[in-house]
Amino acid sequence: MSAAPPVALTIAGSDPSGGAGIQADLKTFSALGAYGTAVLTALTAQSTQGVTGVHVVPPDFVREQLETLVEDVAVDVVKIGMLAGAETVEAVTAFLAARAGEVPVVLDPVMVSTAGSRLLDEDAVQAILTMLPHVSVVTPNLAEAGVLTASEPATDLAGMREQAAAIRALGAPRVLVKGGHLAGSEVSDLWLDGDGEQVLSTERVDTRHTHGTGCTLSSAITALQPQRRHWLEATRDAKAWLTGALRAGEQLRVGQGPGPVHHFHEVW
Questions:
Q1: Contact (CB, 8 A) for 87 and 58
Q2: How far apart are CA 145 and CA 195, in angstroms?
Q3: How many domains are contained in the chain?
Q4: Which of 27, 91, 150, 175 could lock 59 by a disulfide, CB 3.0 to 4.6 Å apart?
């Protein structure tokens, strides 16, 4: 009898277009051999062209979803995405604190969509900072790393290195600063943990099909972490898989804006 797949939980918002948020997380978990569970924090009115509205799930109900789920289901790894408001951030932080160290946690600090829509209230940023010591790794893009460190987004590797160190100093044991918005023939992300830094580079795929890229990478790391020897190996493999998903995105023909990546490019 083969071993059961790991159970991954995503705590995030919904994307009706299916390219980001909960939908992207569950697709990624399935594509990479993890059983997906989900707790919703927000509903969005969203397409590939942007977000027109956000309806936040009451924080008490987010808490109820979490507690009901884990009373029954043994979760092996957690991914946290869009949390929308400070009270929701605080509710999820309290959930993590009560289970300190029980399961690995990936935090994708979703603040601004690729299309430029604000997805996190201003008052929630400070609450996110209090969450950092309770997660295993945080995966900000350049804009999010700037918000977390109260500085301008990095424009080069040196700036990414400085901000990764600042985020670690805030309590996050591992940081992946994503450099996808920098120019160049490669996409270089900066990994920093207690053993030092690694620059993780992959080829840049020339495509407009990038909707949900950040959600997908963090959920890929989440799905692979229980299946790999260490975090860095899971992250490298997640990046390689995402490159394939980006390359195959044009096959989907979804939406009139930046389309989604192809989560099932290795399956279909």
A1: no
A2: 21
A3: 1
A4: 91
**Model pTM score:** 0.95
As a 3-state breakdown, the chain gives helix, strand, coil percent values, each rounded to 5, of: 40, 25, 40
Which amino acid would we find at residue 153? P
Report if residue 256 sits inside a domain. no
Q: Can you tell me whether residue 87 is helix, strand or coil?
A: helix
Pairing type for strands 186-193 and 175-177 reads antiparallel
| Per-residue confidence in pLDDT tens, the chain, 268 aa | 578 999 999 999 999 999 999 999 999 999 999 999 999 999 999 999 988 999 999 999 999 999 999 999 999 999 999 998 999 999 999 999 999 889 999 999 987 655 555 566 677 888 999 999 999 999 999 999 998 999 999 999 999 999 999 999 999 999 999 987 787 778 899 999 999 999 999 889 989 898 999 999 999 999 999 999 999 999 999 999 999 999 999 999 999 999 999 999 999 9
Is 195 among the domain residues? yes
Active site residues: 178, 210, 212-215
240 touches 247 (CB < 8 A): no
DSSP string, 211-233: BTHHHHHHHHHHHHGGGSSSHHH
